[in-house]
Amino acid sequence: MTSSPKPSRKLLAIAGALSVVAGSFAAVPATFAANVSASVPGGNSQNSTEECRHIAVSATQYQGLPGQYQLAYSAATSSLYTSFSSGRPPILTGGVGTWNVASTPSLATVYQFPTTDFIARGATAPTGKQIESPYGIAYDEATGYVWVTQTRVNKVSVFDPATNKIIWSSAEGDVNHPREVRIDPSSGKVFVSGSGGISVFDTTLHALVKKIEFTDAKGESDIAMNMHVDSADGKLYVPSLSAGTVKVIDTKSYEVEKTIQLHKENAEAALNPSDVTIDKSLKEIYVSAQGDRKGSNSGITVYDLETGAYKKTIPFGSQALALASDEARDLLYVTDYGTGNVGVVDARTGTVVSQVSTGATSGANDVLVAADGSVYAVARSIEGASAIETDYTIDKTTGEYRTSSTEPKGKDNADSPITPGVMVKINTTVETTAKPAAQTSSEELVKTYADGAKLYAVKDWTTGETLKLRGEGFKTQDGSKGSVLAVKLNKGRISAKEEPKLNGAEGNSAGVWAYIQADENGNFTAELPYPTTENSNLKENLKSGDKVSVFLLSGSMVEGDTARGGEALSATVAEKKADTAETCAPAETTQVAAAPSGVTTTYPAGTKLSLPDGNEPTPAPSESAKPEPTTPAPSESAKPEPTTPAPSESAKPEPTTPAPSESAKPEPTTPAPSESAKPEPTTPAPSESAKPEPSTLAPSESANSNEVVHEYKDGAKVYFPKTWDGQKLTFRGEGFKTLDGKGSVIAVKLNKGAISAKEEPKLEGVEGNSAGIWAYIKADENGNFTATIDRPTVANSNLTEELKTGDSVAIYLLSGSLTENDNVRGGVAAEYTFSVENQAPAPKVSEPKTSEPANAPVTDPSAAPSAPAESKEQVKENAKDQSKAPVDSLNSETQKKDNAAPKTSGSSSQNVTSSSNGSTSSSSSSKSSLANTGASGVVIAAGIGVLALAVGATVLVARRRKA
């Protein structure tokens, strides 16, 4: 029974179970309870059952860059970043564009990337040059850096827009055909998808931390596609291309928590899942799929966020690719690579409400939602566009950038016009209105009594539903009270199994179906339960078309009441009609053509990205060194999306090198020194206001005549001897404190980690969070330390030949992610160039393990990256013409171990400069991860590949520096 909208109504006991109930409810006996229980309509959210949404979409078209792939957005700088790589290899036109989008989008800067050799198909030597061009792209809000994947050269790089410098690039073998890059600010990790799975990097140390292997149903290496990072809950969602699954990965442990098998509408057609996003308010996961690229299985499938259970399919386009969620408004945006269109989806209803034509006929690669709800999408080309002239193209022979409107393409190297891509800004508005009332059978006046009382009802009594009655003017004779009415069906021949009661007592007549109490105005609303064999004396249930006479009787149940009787209504039993619940008008998919902006895109002269001096990457900038804003910022849900469609299920590119299993952690490029060379801690770091900045070696009052000093912005100083004599180097530090005044934990790298220990150093018995570390240092409570490290040799490192005259070793000191609240520092602290002085025996070290030190992994020259949009066949065909990555000059295929090594002397460079790492993220997993020796202010850090204080190598002891 439901309540009446009028406040003063009163219903009495129905079917004999309860006494009179105040208010506007009829009392229902136990036998009727099941029949009158109200059911609440279901829905995804409260609003979805109370309101209708009206979604309007408009779009504006802007001329973009040639061959656009992915988008990234900076909240700090209000800038939109676009990666672009034109055509097929060799890539001669490409880079990254930065757009101001605070008002009308305008192209502010275009960054030019370094070039490398290109080896044509079937050739064994370079046939020209190509750009190390970017495809995937992400912006790191913590550092102001931009991360890119350089798919065709199997590399990931980080550049600083403020200084126009590439500060770091991944080592050979770290990634294979990298596709997309995602940054997780919570864990301080970067995830790169590609052939073989996911490569995980540290945002502070820029080091490979982990490889997560992906395989298909046959156990063969699979391709990890475009990702979604849920930083708040520490989860990474990644589709696996050939397996047809989505993996849910813990971003702290890197364990796969769940694998969701994806649904196919057409079981016989390919699925090719490409991108994924979530909506926490609707508790749903959305996965886009390209299907068979002819339309079958193309669209979005929806899954329960908690269980992974399949819920529904939203068909869209011929090759659905990139996917983005506007969670604040429960909207989805999906690109169709096959047509160049972008779909707008109401996630609450699972319907495509609009299809936006970008102006491209294909190649819609990416879509991104910004903080203000505006949406940006890019496609690789514009239909009918004229060639543009820029200096973003290189000479194929020399590799020099040149101004041109054409580039040589194809087997005959014919000049082809360089045409722009398109960028579309989509504006979506959502208005809501109340849902229309449920359509019900019309109520009509069915009886007027002699005293003027009126009864209204619906003449059809729907099977299984209550019969609604409404009365007006049912009063006692003196008009002071409301009447009490007895309801009988078929003159009482249909009666309740349990006789209704009045005020807890039986009434004065048998066969009563219910009692009704009118309010003081003589009005009432009542709902009579439908009679069945379960709640009445019926031997068989009523059938459609049966008649039920309803009698209302009054006069004998309350003193002075008005006498009424006779049949009030002859109701006809009717079958339940189609659902007439409250509903919104079905949404029709509107077709929206992006309108030309009328604004001419001006292409600025290219800005060349340079490598630091000596081709050594520099560390991250300080917070004050972040690039100035150029455009509005994205919301948390504004995620940069996929770049190009993935290969078909039957044609998946084979990885250049398979991703290692979880147990097969990436090995450092070079092995580690003996444990006798462990750095010795002594002191903590600066206050938050003293953020580390780049600095140079400079004289200090506390430095003696044989020392040079490197000073960080927070005031921390490290003192190095001017020469590195013999097998060991001792140096000292002052003021290395965390933000809360404890001693910093510092990682030591040689040549950026290219020279690494044979056995990876450990922090308190466990591996640290970065490969290529030579040693760890823990400063004491005053931020001071004295450390001694071994000179790298063939015996203690991954060197394949001893250091010789002219070789240089750069020492990097890195802090920020190894203990909580540490100051971020980085860059070259000192650099030594070696020269032979005399011969001396090499230091004794423990015998190496059975295997020789492993060389840095080398990419198989027979397999090479293909563009993200290529099929497996294209990938395999292209694999033949890709260049072999250069091997580190310190590695060789064979090596001889000598029992003696020449004693060398290294001179410290006096003009070394470094920049501090401005990342503010730190790893809490490293907290208290160094073993304390018990001496005041002295901590032992495991170095050169063995546990702290372990047997088998000399232990490096950090001695407290005397005042």
Automatic annotation (TrEMBL):
Signal peptide positions on this chain: 1-26
Regions that span the bilayer: 934-958
Membrane recorded as keyword: yes
Biased composition (Basic and acidic residues): 870-883
Boundaries of every Gram-positive cocci surface proteins LPxTG domain copy: 930-963
Region (Disordered): 399-420, 595-706, 839-933
Highest taxon in the source lineage: Bacteria
InterPro entries: Host-pathogen_enzymatic-act, LPXTG_anchor, Quino_amine_DH_bsu, WD40/YVTN_repeat-like_dom_sf
Keywords: Cell wall, Membrane, Peptidoglycan-anchor, Secreted, Signal, Transmembrane, Transmembrane helix
Extent of Polar residues compositional bias: 595-604, 697-706
Listed Low complexity bias regions: 685-695, 905-933
SUPFAM superfamilies: YVTN repeat-like/Quinoprotein amine dehydrogenase
PANTHER family: DIHYDRO-HEME D1 DEHYDROGENASE (PTHR47197:SF3), PROTEIN NIRF (PTHR47197)
NCBIfam families according to UniProt: LPXTG_anchor
The name this protein goes by in its record: Gram-positive cocci surface proteins LPxTG domain-containing protein
Organism: Rothia mucilaginosa M508
